[in-house]
Amino acid sequence: MGFELKPSNLLSVELFAYIKLSEWGGKKLRVALEDDDVFTERGVEWIYPINPRLQLIK
How far apart, in whole angstroms, are the C-alpha atoms of residue 43 and residue 6? Predict the structure, then answer.
């Protein structure tokens, strides 16, 4: 089974990273990232600029 991407198809790219935290007794923290993009004649392009910084929310 396959899926053919066509120009103007919108996609959501979901990435996950895990890290063990000693402060949590070695339990893992999951960091989820999601970016939306569109498939064009040139390939996959981001819909909006990617944030190059880490944002800490307290």
Answer: 10
